[in-house]
Specification:
Blueprint (H helix, E strand, L loop, with lengths): L1 H15 L4 H8 L3 H8 L7 H10 L4 H14 L13 H12 L2 E6 L10 H11 L5 H14 L10 E7 H5 L5 H15 L4 E6 L13 E5 L8 E5 L4 E4 L2 H17 L3 H14 L2
Parallel strand pairs: 1-2, 2-3
Antiparallel strand pairs: 1-4, 4-5, 5-6
């Protein structure tokens, strides 16, 4: 998020200075592709290069120091960087999740990772990584369980999730695992920062029939919401304002169609009893 914010600021300052990428490229001796990657946050940027850009854009000293600090902070590594074998896509998501103030999530097939028990995670990961060795499965479990600390940290992440009824009824890992998982959901639903609703089959067609999605919202007003979509082989971040708005409206409709939180807890409790 810091890299996105810095990129946005640099792009704005370039426009204010009325300079084109080609002009910046010529004056700094950089390629236009390097500048473009910086302004679209596809790559990180060292503070020294940020300073050169800010000098070129004639930015004042106090503002320069603020943006240089942002550049330095953007290069700090989170706990997940200790796992250097993770894909860039996964580390990018974990970084965004860690910076988010709240997440609105619609789950259509399996529970969101932040709500999963260790046994449930193991069953999901094993099913998804059919060609992976057992060590990689355990590795993924460790990371997913570490991410769940966001829900209990000093300023906890606010999570509002709508679960399709199929998520509650699909037997993942066996009846014992499912009973434990559903009881875990009931415990989490008691936390003030977690809201869980169930979208029953009787709701019929709904805006989430296209699949699961998450809307990540951030504490800084300058950081726009991001929608995260994932499939078997790839992930997608939706950032265009009009597209993010469509997902936000879709989630509002899903919340309206779903059982309210109290009825959802009752539904989950009844379903958990069936796995007894």
């Amino acid at each position: 998020m810091r890299r996105r914010r810095l990129a946005s600021e640099l792009c704005h300052l370039c426009e204010r200075a009325q300079l084109t990428l080609e002009e910046v490229s010529q004056q700094l001796g950089w390629s236009t592709s390097k500048i473009s990657r910086i302004e679209t946050s596809r790559v990180g940027v060292v503070p020294k290069d940020v300073g050169l850009l800010l000098d070129l854009y004639k930015v004042g000293n106090s503002r320069q120091e603020e943006l240089l600090k942002l550049a330095r902070d953007a290069r700090k590594k989170g706990w997940w960087h200790a796992y250097d074998d993770l894909s860039n896509e996964y580390t990018a998501y974990i970084g965004l999740e860690a910076e988010a103030a709240s997440i609105c999530s619609f789950a259509s097939a399996v529970l969101p990772g932040l709500l999963q028990t260790e046994d449930y995670v193991r069953a999901v990961v094993r099913a998804g990584l059919v060609l992976a060795p057992p060590s990689e499965v355990e590795h993924r479990i460790e990371i997913r369980m570490a991410r769940q600390g966001l829900l209990s940290q000093a300023e906890p992440l606010r999570l509002w999730t709508v679960l399709d009824e199929a998520v509650i009824r699909r037997v993942i890992g066996g009846p014992v695992v499912m009973r434990s998982q559903l009881n875990r959901l009931l415990d989490l639903a008691e936390q003030s920062n977690v809201t869980i609703q169930v979208l029953p089959f009787t709701a019929g067609a709904h805006p989430g029939t296209g699949g699961a999605f998450e809307i990540l919202q951030f504490p800084e007003p300058a950081d726009p919401d991001v929608v995260f979509l994932e499939n078997l082989t790839d992930s997608l971040y939706v950032e265009r304002d009009a597209d993010v708005y469509r997902y936000t409206v879709a989630f509002d409709h899903l919340r309206a169609k779903a059982l309210d939180p109290d009825d959802s807890r009752g539904f989950i409790a009844e379903t958990a009893a069936q796995f007894g």
